[in-house]
Amino acid sequence: MDEKARALAAAKSAAGFQAADMVEDGMVIGLGTGSTVYYMIERLSARVREGLHVTGVPTSFQTAMRAREYAIPLTTLDDHPIIDMAIDGADEVDPHLNLIKGRGAAMTREKCVAAAAFQFIVVVDEAKVVSRFAAPVPVEILPFAVTPAMAQLRGLGCRPVIREGVKKDGPVITDNGNFIVDCTFPSIADPAGLEKAMAEIPGVVESGLFCGYANKITVIVGNEKGIKKIT
Ligand code: 5RP
């Protein structure tokens, strides 16, 4: 591992471990998706082995597999429509604690779980805290409607691209059986307005813009030296 990768891993693990330490006995926890959350799962698993009782609602098949591997008991939103705390990563966090999520293509279930939670803990490395969003906004779209939906997304001012796998051998398919379209905007002046406009397009299942959660978010920002919290 080179120095940069080592520093990034240290930042992610610092944030993930801190989030796991905020979990209290008996809680039902939303388990997000992504490399930072997987550090949290590692630490949570150690706490479960020491006697902590928790149950997790996974936000993806990948996370469910990881949680099973780490012996964290799982449940569903059917059994727990309201949960204590969701812990998840993000791709960018703006000064109003709006988020862009979905590099891992899991943002639809992630948003359902975040919405069901009393507290939303977001774990990131410091490079993801930005003054203005610059990352593409992922949008999950029904394959049936992808062409007209992309035309409407273009009308919102972006360049939409269907996400393909690393081997470029076809579209990425989400856990819900849909496509991801990554939308690059020259700039995003009104993230909440954009989230709403995207949600109104027929065929759009969900976007990776998470606005309006600021009252329940704690962002844990990790770096090589430790963490800081933003609320
Ligand atoms: C998945 C997500 C992830 O939480 C986000 O992409 C951050 O991932 P990582 O911690 O690996 O950087 O939104 O849909």
Automatic annotation (TrEMBL):
Annotated GO MF terms: ribose-5-phosphate isomerase activity
Binding site for substrate: 33-36, 88-91, 101-104, 128
Catalytic activity: aldehydo-D-ribose 5-phosphate = D-ribulose 5-phosphate
Leading EC class: isomerase
EC number: 5.3.1.6
UniProt-listed GO biological process terms: D-ribose metabolic process; pentose-phosphate shunt, non-oxidative branch
GO cellular component, one term: cytosol
Pathway: Carbohydrate degradation; pentose phosphate pathway; D-ribose 5-phosphate from D-ribulose 5-phosphate (non-oxidative stage): step 1/1
Record keywords, A-Z: Isomerase
InterPro entries for the chain: NagB/RpiA_transferase-like (IPR037171), Ribose5P_isomerase_typA_subgr (IPR020672), Ribose5P_isomerase_type_A (IPR004788)
Active site: 110
CDD domains, per the entry: RPI_A (cd01398)
HAMAP family (alphabetical): Rib_5P_isom_A
Family membership noted in the UniProt record: Belongs to the ribose 5-phosphate isomerase family.
Subunit details: Homodimer.
Role noted for this protein: Catalyzes the reversible conversion of ribose-5-phosphate to ribulose 5-phosphate.
Protein's UniProt name: Ribose-5-phosphate isomerase A
Gene: rpiA
